[in-house]
Design goal:
This protein is α+β, with helices and mostly antiparallel strands and 451 residues long. Helix 1 packs across helix 2, helix 8 crosses helix 13 (410-432) and helix 11 (371-388) crosses helix 13. The strands form three sheets. Strands 6, 7, 8, 9, 10 and 11 form a six-stranded antiparallel beta sheet that branches. A four-stranded antiparallel beta sheet has the order 1-2-4-3, sandwiched between helices. Strands 5-12 form a two-stranded parallel ribbon. Helix content is 49%, strand content 19%. It folds into three domains: 2-116, Alpha-Beta Plaits (2-Layer Sandwich), CATH 3.30.70.1050; 129-144 and 276-447, Trigger factor, domain 2 (Orthogonal Bundle), CATH 1.10.3120; 155-259, Chitinase A, domain 3 (Roll).
């Protein structure tokens, strides 16, 4: 077998594979013998079919399979052994490929187009400046978070009258001419919070109402015609919403209101675990550090977004084998069309340019991640997810188990691994450039991501 590469220009080349019978003969013979052992042909015992018949029946397909496998292995071995950095996959050449007849030929020649990855040259110095946004937690943000935890860990107490934040439990009945409709909708136990009633006129009917009072209202107006909300409230199918009456009664049987938890040791223990904090000051400091910890990955993400623009600018315009890459994009996904590829191609090249820069920096600076790095980042993800639900004192073993479950999904594992690499890359970039640290509030930081 002979494999060679001819460079057409700096962006592309043609790989040629010359295969002779001796390259595949032994494997083909073994393949045919295996087929003979397995073949079930009437008139012959299993394993006793004449090899000549096997060759006539299966020889061409077996040849195709062996040659295709040999071509694939030879291509990638040559690319790997010669450190050829290609983009996409080798594609059958459309101009130099000679005709092949597997019925008559024993020696074959294959030609493939390959697109080369462009050479990346980049140098960073302290003269390069990048912004780094550091979130500062102001009193308003801190108090909002504390109030949220107080409500989450509070209790629902019975009260005498209704306000916006009250939770009402009662019976809902469909009316006709002011009386319960015969065969109409009747829900004996449902709940409603006035704060979620979208129509102000309907909401006002409930405010200041007392226990055991009966409110007449229009659910369609109350929920602004939302089929999902109306069907959920009335316990009916969405398709039946249009046919319900405009008048319903709500008999209030219970009124409760969320009473925020007191700022005491019992509350501190519920939020952070027993004796983790022992005073209001310690609690506020712990809340502040928790919020900042949640913003840290986002700060790194924003930093890398700004760094990407700098890196792409410093590298400049790269040359690509556009025709080969477009053909590869078309062949690699049957949902792609020539029109969609043409429309998306500038964005593809933009993303590809950054991925090549990223790979270059990671390789040249020996930025590596190990399993422990992936597991540690998965625990950060798990911790952030629990924090969204107000769970700030999740035991380490529970975090570790949840992280391991996340990593069982291969796609999730790859995303977490990529983020772990990005995290290390961000740390390396910070050491190479000058940082323009900008202190911003949480609200100002969130606005940075608004399109």
């Amino acid at each position: 077998m002979n494999v060679s590469l001819k460079n057409i220009d700096a962006t592309k080349g043609i790989m040629k594979l010359e295969i002779v019978k001796a390259d595949y003969a032994d494997k083909l013979e073994r393949s045919l013998r295996n087929l003979r052992q397995k073949a079930n042909i009437p008139g012959f015992r299993k394993g006793m079919v004449p090899i000549g018949m096997i060759k006539r029946m299966y020889g061409k397909n077996a040849l195709l399979e062996e040659v295709n496998q040999l071509v694939s292995e030879s291509l990638y071995n040559y690319i790997r052994e010669n450190n050829i950095n290609i983009l996409g996959e080798p594609l059958p050449n459309e101009t130099e490929q000679p005709k092949i007849d597997f019925d008559t030929q024993e020696d074959f020649e294959f030609c493939f187009d390959v697109a080369f990855a462009p050479e990346i040259k980049i140098e960073l110095t302290k003269d390069d400046e990048l912004p780094f946004y550091k979130v500062v937690i102001d009193d308003e943000t801190l108090n909002k978070q504390i109030e949220s935890y107080r409500l989450n860990f509070g209790s629902y107490d019975s009260v005498d009258d209704v306000d916006e934040k009250s939770l009402l439990k009662g019976t809902v009945a469909e009316l006709e001419n002011g009386a319960p409709k015969e065969g109409g909708i009747l829900v004996e136990s449902t709940t409603l919070m006035p704060m979620y009633v979208k129509n102000e006129t309907e909401k006002a009917k409930f405010l200041d109402a007392k226990k055991n009072s009966v409110i007449t209202f229009n659910p369609k107006n109350a929920f602004d015609g939302s089929e999902v909300e109306i069907s959920s409230f009335l316990h009916i199918d969405k398709s039946a919403v249009q046919n319900v009456s405009d008048e319903f009664s709500f008999e209030i049987k219970e009124i409760t209101r969320n009473k925020p938890a007191e700022l005491n040791q019992e509350f501190f223990d519920k939020v952070f675990g027993k004796d983790t904090v022992k005073s209001v000051d310690e609690f506020e400091a712990k809340i502040t550090s928790t919020i900042l910890e949640q913003y840290e990955p986002q700060s790194n993400f924003k930093f890398l977004t700004d760094a990407r623009n700098l890196l792409v600018t410093k590298v400049g315009k790269l040359e690509f084998a556009d025709e080969v890459l477009k053909r590869w994009l078309l062949m690699s996904n049957d949902k792609n069309t020539k029109e969609s590829i043409e429309a998306d191609y500038p964005h593809v090249i933009e993303d590809l340019t950054y991925q090549l820069i990223r790979a270059k920096l990671v390789k040249d600076n020996d930025i590596k991640i190990e399993n422990k790095d992936i597991e540690a980042f998965a625990k950060q993800v798990a911790k952030a997810q629990f924090a969204q639900y107000g769970m700030l004192s999740v035991p380490e073993d529970a975090l570790a188990n949840y992280a391991q479950n996340l990593l069982k999904d291969k796609q999730t594992q790859q995303r977490i691994a990529d983020r772990a690499v990005e995290d290390k890359l961000a740390d390396w970039l910070k050491s190479q450039v000058s940082l323009n640290v900008k202190e911003v509030s949480a609200e100002e930081f969130n606005k940075l991501f608004e399109a």
